[in-house]
What does this fold into?
Amino acid sequence: LGHTTDLPLESMYRAARAARIYDGPDEVHKVTVARQILKRYRPSDPPQEHLPTRRAAALEKFADALDGLSLSH
It folds into this structure.
């Protein structure tokens, strides 16, 4: 058994191994692709069911009615 460089498969394998070195790590490509994909989307609105947010909005909306009451919040 020996090693030969006469076959095209060996040449392709050698080129593929070298490409992994000069092309950069896979993680860099994943980050680049993720950024390109995420540019197409806009951020979503915050959840409407968030209780502290709803409570603050209700306190602001009914502030005049609550001023006369002695409720602690």
Remarks:
- Residues 1-42 form one domain.
